[in-house]
């Protein structure tokens, strides 16, 4: 553990009640962190996870501009905040030809504005620490499926570098960009099994690798403004569509 993370400390994980967020929360708790689990509708799952790992919960709708303030306020009485994981994400299928203003706003509000406001508030509150943004490996070789989602993640990638520059030296900011890790969006289990390992290495990304990347970022005090891409070399294939719309050859 590096000096910036010694002693009692709190990690905020947005969208931390289920799926990848919940596994991140469990891993951080196992490493000695007090975890503040952000959720919106998953109240029961968040409460059960908090009981399991000895964490805390906070409910906030990330599309609300006041969400960051509410999440930071929930740190009162907890150990000092030292880590923010912007994991929560909206992921709804649309295209460049059919996206709507409502869909655009929903993706950008949750996937970009909320992390920006929360990063700003965290940096002011924490004074030192690490912000990790969950991106998407498709940014390394973009395709136009999930159009507004992809635009929002492109923005988040830019936010990652800009805030790394702005918040240095006290706050480090990095990204983790996995390819498909769990069944998501309109994808079926059968399709997931067919395309999960559709990459140069022939090995699908596991949540444990996202956790390992996060632990590496925490343990490496000289890394900032960088994104770890976990895609098995999928970017080398230059896929024309999102992987779930393709079948393994």
From TrEMBL:
Presence of the UniProt keyword Secreted in the record: no
SUPFAM superfamilies referenced in this protein's UniProt entry, alphabetically: NAD(P)-binding Rossmann-fold domains
InterPro entries in alphabetical order: NAD(P)-bd_dom_sf (IPR036291), Sc_DH/Rdtase_CS (IPR020904), SDR_fam (IPR002347)
Magnesium among keywords: no
Keywords: Oxidoreductase
PROSITE patterns, alphabetized: ADH_SHORT
Entry's Gene Ontology molecular function annotations: oxidoreductase activity
Domain of life, per lineage: Bacteria
Entry similarity comment: Belongs to the short-chain dehydrogenases/reductases (SDR) family.
Name by which UniProt lists this protein: SDR family oxidoreductase
Protein species of origin: Allosphingosinicella ginsenosidimutans
Organism classification: Bacteria, Pseudomonadati, Pseudomonadota, Alphaproteobacteria, Sphingomonadales
